[in-house]
Design a protein that fits this description.
single chain, Butyryl-Coa Dehydrogenase, subunit A, domain 1, Butyryl-CoA Dehydrogenase, subunit A, domain 2, Butyryl-CoA Dehydrogenase, subunit A, domain 3, 3 domains, binds flavin-adenine dinucleotide
């Protein structure tokens, strides 16, 4: 049975997120892009109306919504502004492996309060010398009685400057390769945790990205997420939920770019008619629409598989790679449709082009998604 309609609840969720994006995010978006100011007020409002942390299970007071629901919200939020959207969504990435693996003690102490209070968390896996090559990380955690001593440096950590806690992965047994990695929940205020300066990025500028250093940080054994040696599985497994959500954000950005391009093409005259009436322009817009539809279908299939407890690793990577590449291409074509005005900061599409690039890099580059697709297809026969 195949169905393409949303439930009544999902339509309500989409409309709520769209209204929020139109009324709260779009008007504030240029200010946050120009200043890089963290969008705290918008995040607090989003939290208040139930658009954040939607996958916290009902058992811990959350909404317990699934991956498909999250993609529906994410597309609308990204249509509003992906800088603000990434600042909001980074919480989901930090929460996902904790929800999957944490003890009741950690869930009660750190996750359940996030339902009532808009606190932020960060997923700290990438290192200065190891991004795609996660197994190349150098961070270590050595057990000493009732605690571990954590040392290492993490890089490009979204929300690092505002996070109350970090999901951190480090080697507890380097000889065991990826099976020797362990995940920890580390509070920002613990001795030895140092957060670096805010990075000034090409796009999505109000999303707070920083390095974090851990120097002889004493992490109590109760702060292991899952069990020793499960770090890799938890950190990578989280992407099955979050990659469709990030891909959906790319769809939202692409939709915004297409809408701007379509409206402009009907207004702007060249050689006696609206540029939309020149086939070279209308075909660019037709290609945008086609790729947005295809990307959304991949997103919803990947999310549906996850919600229905089926392996979706390959489909999550397909959705992420396709949507990210499409969003960057569509944003670039939107600039093309605007001509010289597209290159200017007075018009919305140059920001969309800058914001779109990161979709091909974070949560696994477009090359790494292809690596995963090929591995799943050729080695595992999916
Ligand atoms: C704004 C921003 C936010 C981020 N947020 C987070 C976060 O919250 N938490 C976190 O842990 N990380 C985060 N990251 C890190 C991000 O996930 C990494 O930057 C990304 O995985 C790429 O790693 P790298 O930068 O080390 O590039 P590298 O791994 O050095 O890659 C460089 C190039 O080589 C290619 N490449 C590498 N290996 C292969 C291969 N085997 N086959 C083919 N091509 C390959 C890559 O595709 C890329 O084009 C963020 C990054 C940015 C820029």
């Amino acid at each position: 049975m195949i169905g393409f309609s949303l439930t009544e609840e999902q339509e309500q969720l989409r409309d709520l997120a769209h209204e929020f994006a139109a009324n709260e995010m779009r008007p504030a978006s240029p200010h946050h892009d120009q200043t890089g100011e963290y969008p705290w007020e918008i995040i607090k409002k989003a939290h208040e109306i139930g658009l954040m942390n939607t996958h916290i299970p009902e058992r811990w007071g959350g909404l317990g919504l699934g991956a498909l629901d999250a993609t529906i919200i994410s597309e609308e939020i990204a249509w509003g502004c992906t800088g603000i959207g990434t600042a909001m969504e980074a919480n989901s990435l930090a929460l996902q492996p904790v929800i999957e693996g944490a003890s009741d003690y950690l869930m009660e102490k750190y996750v359940a309060p996030m339902v009532e209070t808009p606190t932020m968390a960060a997923y700290a896996v990438t290192e200065p010398g190891a991004g795609s090559d996660v197994a190349g990380m150098r961070s270590t955690a050595v057990r000493k009685g009732d605690h571990y001593v954590l040392n290492g440096s993490k890089m490009w950590i979204t929300n690092a400057g505002v996070a109350e806690w970090f999901f951190v992965v480090a080697y507890t047994d380097r000889g065991a390769n990826y099976k020797g990695m362990t995940a920890f929940l580390v509070e920002k205020g613990w001795k030895g945790v140092e957060v670096g300066k805010k990075e000034w990025n090409m796009g999505q500028r109000c999303s707070d990205t920083r390095g974090v250093t851990f120097a002889d940080v004493e992490v109590p054994v109760e702060h292991v997420v899952g069990t020793e040696g499960q770090g890799w599985k938890l950190a990578m497994g989280a992407f099955d939920h979050t990659r469709p959500v990030v891909a959906s954000a790319a769809v939202g950005l692409a939709r915004a770019a297409m809408e701007h391009a379509a409206a402009y093409s009907l207004e702007r005259q060249a050689m006696g008619k609206p540029i939309a009436m020149h086939q070279a322009v209308s075909f660019m817009i037709a290609d945008m629409a086609k790729d947005i539809e295809a990307a959304r279908l991949l997103v919803r299939q990947a999310a549906w598989l996850k919600d229905n407890h089926q392996n979706n690793t390959m489909h999550a990577s397909m959705a992420k790679a396709f949507a990210a590449d499409a969003a960057h291409r569509i944003a670039s074509d939107a600039v093309q449709v605007f001509g010289g005005y597209g290159f200017n900061t007075e018009y919305p599409v140059e920001k969309l082009l800058r914001d779109s690039k990161i979709f091909q890099i974070y949560e696994g580059t477009s090359q790494i998604q292809r690596l995963i697709i090929a591995r799943e297809l050729l080695m595992r026969g999916r």
